[in-house]
Amino acid sequence: MTQKRIPVAVLAATGSVGQRFVQLLDGHPWFEVTALTASERSSGQTYGEACHWLLPEPMPEWARSLPVLPTSADAVQVPLVFSALPADTAKTIEPEFAKAGSFVCTNASAFRREPDVPILVPEVNAAHLEILKVQQRKRGWKGGIVTNPNCTSTGMTVSLKALMDAFGLESVFAVSLQALSGAGYPGVASMDILDNVIPYIGGEEEKVEWEPRKMLGVVGGEQLELAKFGISVHTNRVAVSDGHLVCLSIRLGKRASAAEAAAVLRAYQGPADSRGLPSSPSPVILVRDEPNRPQPRLDRLTGKGMTTVVGRVRPDSQLDLKMVVLSHNTIRGAAGGSIYNAELMVKEGWL
Amino acid sequence: MTQKRIPVAVLAATGSVGQRFVQLLDGHPWFEVTALTASERSSGQTYGEACHWLLPEPMPEWARSLPVLPTSADAVQVPLVFSALPADTAKTIEPEFAKAGSFVCTNASAFRREPDVPILVPEVNAAHLEILKVQQRKRGWKGGIVTNPNCTSTGMTVSLKALMDAFGLESVFAVSLQALSGAGYPGVASMDILDNVIPYIGGEEEKVEWEPRKMLGVVGGEQLELAKFGISVHTNRVAVSDGHLVCLSIRLGKRASAAEAAAVLRAYQGPADSRGLPSSPSPVILVRDEPNRPQPRLDRLTGKGMTTVVGRVRPDSQLDLKMVVLSHNTIRGAAGGSIYNAELMVKEGWL
Amino acid sequence: MTQKRIPVAVLAATGSVGQRFVQLLDGHPWFEVTALTASERSSGQTYGEACHWLLPEPMPEWARSLPVLPTSADAVQVPLVFSALPADTAKTIEPEFAKAGSFVCTNASAFRREPDVPILVPEVNAAHLEILKVQQRKRGWKGGIVTNPNCTSTGMTVSLKALMDAFGLESVFAVSLQALSGAGYPGVASMDILDNVIPYIGGEEEKVEWEPRKMLGVVGGEQLELAKFGISVHTNRVAVSDGHLVCLSIRLGKRASAAEAAAVLRAYQGPADSRGLPSSPSPVILVRDEPNRPQPRLDRLTGKGMTTVVGRVRPDSQLDLKMVVLSHNTIRGAAGGSIYNAELMVKEGWL
Amino acid sequence: MTQKRIPVAVLAATGSVGQRFVQLLDGHPWFEVTALTASERSSGQTYGEACHWLLPEPMPEWARSLPVLPTSADAVQVPLVFSALPADTAKTIEPEFAKAGSFVCTNASAFRREPDVPILVPEVNAAHLEILKVQQRKRGWKGGIVTNPNCTSTGMTVSLKALMDAFGLESVFAVSLQALSGAGYPGVASMDILDNVIPYIGGEEEKVEWEPRKMLGVVGGEQLELAKFGISVHTNRVAVSDGHLVCLSIRLGKRASAAEAAAVLRAYQGPADSRGLPSSPSPVILVRDEPNRPQPRLDRLTGKGMTTVVGRVRPDSQLDLKMVVLSHNTIRGAAGGSIYNAELMVKEGWL
Question: For burial by CB atoms within 10 Å, which of C222, D227, D289, D312 has the most?
Fold first, then answer.
């Protein structure tokens, strides 16, 4: 199999999301990392030299000796690129790769609001890949850009999709308790979070109030159309390493009991194409019955960190349902999500 | 002044709330602690011997040598009793004190649902003390029972009161991030909360969905009547020592901008009788303008831990307002609240 | 291979160390768990019902439905027993199993001080198993008791063994920073450790000042003889979930440079019989060169949690060497250590 | 009294140590802050605008409106300067102030190794101020530089001084568990310390192995002479906000029991001139008898954060004594220490 693996690059591979890409791609059956890039400061070094590795899993041996390349479409020519670039850099560099013929699966937010760029979560909206044709035609690209959502939007949207399919969706109140790794490295200062909560994450609420509506919308000819439901979000940072928790209050399109909702969540499978891929979550959604779950430390690695874990499905005194959703922010909500997207693209013949 | 101080007792003085009563009553201008009680296991010991003191402030010297008494109205005869009893014990013991002529200012939840027992927060509902007359008449008590609310209800209700007075109140969504000290001692196991959040606190959501409606209601002849607004609550435990944070989305009775709401919160004074007492918060509500405040570690001791701190007052995409409220759970939300209640009772002539 | 697996029991299987036994024995190539015991309170329940599972790894399915048995040699008849009993219970129950013919690999401290009972760490003192013959003869047992050391003694002793073999050993100063899981569950209260250190662990320093001397000693006819070197220990509890760190200052028998010591540690293999078993650490000792390692969160799972990780090997201004040792306390220092011991017993023909 | 207060400046007032200076000088009976400086980036702003205030105590009102000045002896002309400068900047700027006639009480390490610059801890070595005469003469300064020690050296040296006076001192093994605030702000990244310990602090061990020997030495004519005893130090960073804990093993000059040592520590008063100043610790040393104290969260504010807290005084199996020392690192070990030094200088007529 190795000889047939698709060569891939990781852009901004020394940062915290970049490291997660490298770790998750270690031993991937379809993809082989042949290029790692970083800022100019690191050029001329090997990845082992340039990278301050932060994960408990050891740095893969093959990565250690790879040279760090500059982040440019000239220097890196591969059919598939995983991008951990910051939004401002992504804005200019990702289109260069797409123009040069690479498909860019990106964790950056730069293009999420473009009507011809999908925010892809395979078990939610695999069909949105269709918009790539519009993207290529309009922009004259041979490759393309596929984004994954903000880490907080991800698990929330998977569970909302299951409910929307079964009952419709009118409005959502969401309050997040987000992990430190979501802020990158060095990110949050320890003095700011020890014995503390920070009830604010810059720019986050705007993203989480918008992205789910795009993901839950439909392909409408030349553009992705937003789903029509209300959504109000408050985001908090808490002293947790990995795993974003979201407390949800939901008004459905038609009434459903907590038991009916739990059954629907439990049975949810996602579109056929999203299943059976190397990174497909198994199960798609795990519904826990204990009163005090999910918890980040105990449940974040469910389904190798790709499963959406839901708990406390119960009636809401104002709307219909209340529940808690947990999703691993650097696996499901970042690098793992992008890899899963790329796998779907292989299956659908884009790669 | 010392010779005129009112002798008071603290029931269950060795527990975590009991300790906070002892610490806050140290040097109180109106009250002098003359009796400390605990379970029978501790009888015959001094408080210094019986108590595993947990507060950073040192145990007051006068407390160290006080004998620990059994928790009974026979053993302890004082006009004013502060109760840190657990709810089940409070159920039987607090009425014995009230019958014997003591006024019981209690942190226990046992009597909060009784229609003739006030849940008192002076700056919210000082007028509810009026119901004590009904309580005494109906129950044949010479003393009486006055409760303070659940620690999470407290700050939330202070801020809702200010808004309700100005704009009316239709519905509230609240998600709390609560401190460890709210669970008593030993309370939450460290293995359960390090690098974790527990999205559940037994019995808490029911209290916080009900108590604010009673506190914001009116004295209706023979009973306290609930205010009519909707309220949905989700409670979480986080790795914070002290200070409960609540994220609120609010529909007002009539539209108001975030700036108008902030101005109303900032100007709120509470009823005249609630002002100028030894424990009166100053200010009643502090509205912070920074985008990332209030924070438990930085703001919980505002106004000696008695002030309600509000921040992030902003529009809600679904309702009218979003904001964050912080209140010190063992001071404002427990012992300090009870002491403030007793001060109001002195001012209104009950003591 | 499955049909030939040795049936084993786990005593006190619902506690935190017991759970780790169950998790580590899941899929073990040589041992098959056929019995789980707990206190009488749980009898009549399945393990899934009786156990408040605390590990991030899910409870193995086979364990979920096993009935919880009483902890007695009558109820549980298997050739090999893993014991997670507390010391006081172990004192009376473990000999009953040994008498009835079972070999007991125990994490309890009850018999560690007996001169005919080994404190076994295979890569340190595999030869100490020899004393089992004396134990059986003197006590009239068909089975026997083999202990593993205190979790803090473990990693420290592995690294001291390597140095002692090469250079001799005169004296050791050790200060530990120990993880919360070492205190069991519920163990340390969260209010006691958030934003805090507890510079005391009851009974711990006595164990850690004695056990290494026994492990590093020799079989002297009818008893295990203590090695002769000085050792002074101070133990602390810190806010870490798993992984005990020990800071060591060491006087060797003969001078050695830090580089020589590091080379010796790196090359250490342990006795031949300790190698190649299912739980053998690989490497035995990992020496890290970074100035700020080992760290519990990043390094505790090295070698599946069985490897001793050493760092900061450098000269000591008073003695010869300073270094830092990390060892996973519930894997290497408890359940994993006992399982490794049992594997050695299989290899040497005791089972 | 106010009209006679000495005008003082705080250099680098916006950093974490600078903020602590401002907070501790609020309401000081002898000193009045008239100037605050910061890097050029902040010039033209008020302190309230320039400073990201991190302390739970609110920023003093008088500080809020003070203009931020550049850090130069031209811009700031006051008799007394408190310096929170980083070491490299201090190297050039502090002498300019000293030359211009200001006395600089500094927390920076830049001049601690100079033989004519005291590392001053009033209750240890008030007499070292004498060396200022040499400093002024040799350097041609009208003012001078007085340093306080590294935050970890401070509490340790106070307790060693008491023991040395009574019993002599031969050697010391010290392992520290240091708080996050010691690293400044933003300092340690939260991802590096949550569920973790970092067994390394750059440059720290060298300081803590040297400074106590200077402080415990004597004025020898033209220079301060080092005390002769051995000292070996290992430093760790732990998840504590404030309060450095040090575990000590000590060989005394002559044998003493733990009880004798505890009595000596408890009775220690320091030189006469160090007593009765506004910042004098009361008591100088608090010896706690509980087996599990001192603890940072519970004991760091003893004596307003100026007292050295000692516990677990007990025999050492290798040397004479073991004990644990706690000292508040940003109060006693930094800003508070410098202020105390300045008070001593007033008393001795330097100011």
Answer: D312
